[in-house]
Amino acid sequence: MTLHTSSESLVDLKYQGRRRLLKQLAAIGIGSSMPWAAASAASAAQRQTPSDPWKRAAEIITKLSVPFRFREADYPITRYGAKTCELQKVQAWSSFEDQGVLQTPAASSFDCYAAIRNAIETCHREGGGRVLIPAGDWFCAGPIVLLSNVNVHLQAGAHVYFSHQPDDYAKYGDVDCGKNGKLSISRWQSNDCLNYSPMIYAIGQENIALTGEDWTAVLDGQGGVPFNEFGDCWWTWKGKLKTLNAIAQSSVPNYRPGKPSENAVNSLNAQTLKEVAPQISPELQALIQGNDDKWRADASYLPALSEAGVPLPQRVFGKGHFLRPPMIQFIGCRKVLMEGYEVRNTPFWQHHPVNCQHVVIRRVHAKSHGPNSDGFDPEACDHVLVDGCTFDSGDDCIAIKAGKNLDTQYGPSRDIVIQNCTMQSGHGAVTLGSEMAGGIEHVYAQNLLFENVHWQTNPLNTAIRLKTNLNRGGYLKHFYVRNIKIPNGVQTSPSFYTSLPGSPIASKTVATAAGAIVTFDCDYTPVSDNVRIRPPVVEDVHISNVRVGNVKTAKGEYSCYQAIVILGPVASDYNGRAPMPEVLPVRDVTITDCDFGTPAAGTQAMYLYNVKGLKLRNVKIGKEMITREYSA
């Protein structure tokens, strides 16, 4: 089912909320109606927080443990003409800095895109069932688009190689954007856009699944395989890095200054916002654009369009632009299962459900060491269970999102349980933000192993991480963490952040980017945002029973650089109209019955700024046992 239309015909697709999204999609022939009203009412009935928050977590687990059901009918893709491919060896990137020999489909490989699409459409039309991808190597030069009541299932030994050519994801989208290609409704770093299709995609569907028999069932994004004679790959489009003192992430594959990327000015973008948003005032235009033309780089241009109120049909990217698509993205779906496979080498975020209800990801191996390779990013989702997964990521293992700038129409992320998972490399093991303008609430993380096996060469940067700032705004409340084992600590050297001129925080002095077990960063990369008018609210966070081990380094045995870094909102960053809204401190945080090992920072084991009522009880840091209340 594919609809080709002009972007201008989607006049009202700056959609507001779940029911309106589905109404709009149905109006242009995409998706189908779903019982959102009943589901939303049921969710609202459960909003009251019980006296025991873990009781609420247990209720979420019970609700999401009901088995998914599909019609007992199989649709092997070979029935629709799919053929396996021959492989060849190629020199490719396997991470930010490392190259090696990888397997890739030979140039003459059969493209299974049409066969998989036909199998899914037939399965859906006949009432649903399983679309089977048998053992073998398969090449797909386009997206796998899921439809209601369909389970796409990879049998053991099935390896799907998605094309590494960006243009293959601008061929089959629902919106014909002319020279930019046929694009898909997507969301990139929490802003709505028309862009390259994700490699696995669904919008407005119900009861869908992506499953594998075991971790020999592989979905391969080939993010580090070169697509041109210059050796560029999807990951090259990341462009210049900003993190100071990064380990194993100090460069981008094949990037050199002057190459096109998401953070280089793109001449295709408007020279002034007035060209695309004539209604905005000169004051707002100046605020969004800032003092130079860096806002015209794709990664900044999209949020600028959001701030200016530019509707979705005019946010056209795709060909000629450099916003990498997520590997797996489901938008406005209900009852979503991801289970039992391995995903690797993804162009961008690995799993990104947006505005979805009843989402389960279970026993998935998320393995990608490229730029922005977050393992799982549920955004504005309601009722999510992450259970028994292993994350080995080039960015945050899990990062809960909820919109950015003015794209908050889907509301908060809430009622999320993370349990029984293992985290290896990555920026944060369990992260909230930084895109959280719509709010995050009722998140429960328990019984987790942050194993950090690559601690010598590619360490986990931090364990429990919050990111926001005066651009992101939003709120975080009712976040509960318990029973965490971190046997090999986290990064034992600091990675600092850069503050704005006039800040009371000196640049390159606070290790919010890496080095702490617990990091609350309410001034996340402020130099990247021209608009800073929305103070965030962070409160009601409770962490218990975290056990951290030391590792032997050249300078001694340490578990981290610092145990706790809480950088509350920085009021001096505000650049909006007077009067400035109240900038609240981080409040009501308790950390109990923990052993954080030995920080390398010695007597500077904690950093606190704009925090009120931080309570530590039975917390061991180095040789000191602490029971105390702090405010800073």
UniProtKB/TrEMBL annotation:
Family: Belongs to the glycosyl hydrolase 28 family.
Domain of life of the organism encoding this protein: Bacteria
Keyword Hydrolase: yes
Name of the molecule in the record: Glycoside hydrolase family 28 protein
Molecular functions (GO terms): hydrolase activity
Record Pfam families: Glyco_hydro_28 (PF00295)
Keywords, sorted A to Z: Glycosidase, Hydrolase
